Amino acid sequence: MRNVWTIASREYRHYFLSPVAYIVAFLILMLAGILFVFQLKSVQDMTYQGYYPNPPTAANSVIYPTAFMMLFAAPALTMRLLSEEQRSGTLELLLTAPLKDWELVVGKWLGAFMYILTVYVITLIIPIVLNRLVVPGIDIKATVAGYLALILFTAAFLAIGTAFSSMFNNQFAAFFATLITFVLLWWVVGWPANLIPAASGFFGYLHAYAHLTSMMQGAIALKDLVYFLSLTAVGLFVGTVAIEIRRWQ
Amino acid sequence: MIRATGLTKDYGSRRAIENLTFEANQGEIVGFLGPNGAGKTTTMRILTGYMPPTYGTAQVAGFDIIEESMEVRRRVGYLPETVPLYPDMTVYGYLKFMADLRHLPDPDDMIDETLEIVGMTERADGYISNLSKGMRQRVGLAQALLHKPEVLILDEPTIGLDPAQVVEVRNIIREIGKQRTVLLSTHILSEAQQVCDRVLILNRGRIVAEDTPENLQARLMGAERAILTVKGDADGLAALLAQIKGVKNVQARPDGGVEFQFAPGMDVRPEVARQTIQAGYDLLELRLMGLSLEEIFLELTRDSKISK
Amino acid sequence: MAKKRSRKNTIKQYAYIALIVSGLALVASAVLGLFKLVVFLDLYTLPNEQWLNNSLYISLGLIFIGLAVYALINPEGVRDFFSGRQGRYGSNAVITLAAFLAIVLVVNMWAYATPKTWDFTEDLQHTLAPETIDALRMLREPVRAIAFYTQEPAQIRELLENMQSNSNGKFEFEFVNPDVNPTRALEYEITSDRTIVLVMGDRRETITYANEQAIVNALMRLMNPGERIVYFVTGHGEHSPDQSGETGLSRLSTTLTAKNYTIRTLNLLAENRIPGDAQAIIIAGPAQPLSPEETRLIIEYLDQGGSLILLSESPLFTGATDRPDPLAAHLATNWNIRLNNDIVIDPSLDQVLIAVSASYGDHAIVQNLQTTNTYYPIARSLTIGSDSADVQTTVLVSTVNRAWGESNLDEINQGYPQFNAGTDVAGPIVLAAVSENMTTGARVIVFGDSDFATDSIFDVYGNGNLITNAVDYAAGQEDYITLTRAERVTRQLSDDINQGTILMLGATFICLIPLLIVIGGIASWLMRRAQG
Ligand SMILES: Nc1ncnc2c1ncn2[C@@H]1O[C@H](COP(=O)(O)OP(=O)(O)OP(=O)(O)O)[C@@H](O)[C@H]1O
Ligand SMILES: [Mg+2]
Fold first, then answer.
1. What is the ipTM of this complex?
2. Which one of A134, B170, C62, C319 has the fewest beta carbons within 10 angstroms of its own beta carbon?
3. CATH superfamily, with its number, for domain B2-217
4. Residue whose C-alpha is closest to residue B155's, from B83, B217, B98, B57
């Protein structure tokens, strides 16, 4: 555990020196900011005209756009985690240090996870401000559920990215493999769910988008939690196995 | 202490090392010598737990490298061939990271001590990306020495250093080698000769010779070699020498000297000196030339090539 | 060290137990799988297929778990099984990965089958109404919902999952795509998409408008069976429930049968009494008025709290203008519903003789019809009197204002009906009304038309639904329960927000915060460069 923390905190600090991390933070905050302000504006315009539409929610203006952004940001954040170590030769250092393979993989993932959580903490300003703009305040419980969904979703997708990073020596290969997997889980799996009714339960269950959106609406189902936690565990486990395979390949 | 028995490593169908068996005891510095691709790095990676051998096993610091890899890794300091550094960290930050990974009790003291040894105290707060090649090599070495390991494994530790630094690093290694076990690899034969208590010569994944540098030299010397230099014209000298009993392989050298060989234990030099002076030459120098490690090396590796 | 090893060995000694479990599960799965095949091929129908599915899943899961446990306790054993020394690491990795994935698979299958949801909304949008939960708690026998949907709606799934998890295992559901599985749709006599059938033992309830309210009430009906018998009066040229075709009521009677009604016919003159088990009597379009004797029987029946549905045709149309109608007279005096001798002219359609619903009253019978039209060819108008002490009357269906009740048949026959203020009834015309006696509980539902319920237009828009609802209401089978839900909190943007606030927020969130990130990035880069 201590080793996990050592690896994670080095990785976490590394992100603050990495241009990619700043670009990711910039894009997430920018997108959330734009959506928030423009949604607010259109609702305000309609309120002015005498309609009373539902005000923006944290789910609409922050959580969903951030999750969408993470489809591209997560591969960018994780692509170099282990492939970079391989390229620069430092992987040899870590693999001969008294450190278990899973500690290395989990530490790497945790570093990326902590970084993105830091960005998410900044996005909390939006729901806080929104709460003051809405009478009688936003649905705090649903907002908490939305952030929980976002956090679990991010954990799962970063774990997948970490797994690919430990499989590939090339960062870009890791990036695209991760991105393709995300696109499959986010969009493509939804199609067979509708096309092949017999397997719709199976494909529907794999559909990350469905799990995320239903949690975002405040209905936290056991299966949603299990789904995201399983994805995380599978990602980290596959990453560990990939490192082991690297040793004796 | 290192004890390897029958180490074999296959990369796919290519066999990188085959059935290596050797030992390195405490207080001993053992050198790995061999041409490119001989399997030095491969062996070291196996010993440090980076990868398992295909067959065979080894004991390092009293632990089995396969079954008790974690214990081995705790007790080994390893400097890989490509120095593993994080350019975005400071020297101190890097060593602190390694100290944390190794759970050192008082990291700051040990870092200071190690920086002192490798002479990098002044650059402790500088970023690694801004260091010269030699300095980086020293930071890598510091990382390997940091936890005062029982066994130190160094893959080409002096590569890329300037002569003064080479001497320094060799001194460091010699100092450490007094109490601990050191295994180092090198292409520089004089380095092995100077630093190592024992040399293992590897070629194509096999050990082709193993002894102290002195013994190796002696064992391989089929003949002594000497060079004779006279003032002025050396015409006819070669013919003269060839007649002396025990002198073999006489050759005139372009610089005016004459080179010859003789069987060890049958020193012909007094006779050669007498005959030269009697023949009217002005003798300037009569010098013994040892058969160098380089030649032994080349001979050994050539032989095994042929034998293969 | 030695100690540790010996302990490891003792665990390994028992690893074979996991293999045995796995082997037994394999045999069980094979047997169950065979059984499943038999059921799938419709060679044998199980009373409860879910039981078979569950056992199959459990035994399949056990195979994996057994193998996984064995692999985790004794990976060397598995490794040796697969290969010699060469691929030992490879097979090791494959085995641990397979074992891990198997465990993940089983956990996810369990989670998929366990509908547990936590409602994280302040106004409990995803929580069932307390009445629904009570109804589910009251279930004694298991109920199975078979939802026939070509496209599975997320809300209905969430609702059914929610109900399942609140039912102590008594309520289960499955989605069936009627296009893919037409035999099942046929088995449950499904005629339209988006239908849910609730099955309890050998009894069924069909729901065509699925929402929480409808499902709960179907549940209540399942729980409170009792015979539901309705009588169709014969002997005056009424439409027959047994007859199919243009003027028959066979569509109505099959629909009612599907809803567990027993349909009988009743000749009042022959029997001279109304059976005690009649939950409602229906007089569907008599060509002749009922005799005073028959009317007396009906009045007595109503006095005892019975229910009557009268689908009445205009005498102008039936040609029975000269006969007195004692039943109509009774309805006018005692139930505040007067049947006028006219024909409704409704200009909504080109065919002015077809009256069209323009608005519905606020009543259980027409609750689910608010957005659907109903059509009444050649109808008569009703006039509603004011409520008396006991009797309360509600208009069910009325036409547009422009329609009127034409009392002069000649104008119609000549093709130019005109509204004559003195003699004709002005629009909007009431086409159907319900009266309820609050003391006796008797219910009377009167329609100024009978054709709308016949097979020819039963399936047109809401016609079938309206007459079915009317029978339900007359038989006392209307919704038992109305749900009381936590009110949804209405949230609005505060009035204090103006263009200035938006501008300021835009400056903060679109400019300032992203800019700070950029500055942070540049600062960290500069700092690193400055440091040697
Ligand atoms: N990762 C690898 N995959 C496949 N073959 C490899 C790999 N690493 C080394 N080899 C092969 O194994 C053999 C031994 O390589 P090794 O790196 O151990 O040699 P070396 O003695 O360290 O050489 P050098 O003096 O150049 O460092 C070489 O033939 C090399 O091509
Ligand atoms: Mg090498």
1. 0.90
2. C319
3. P-loop containing nucleotide triphosphate hydrolases (3.40.50.300)
4. B83
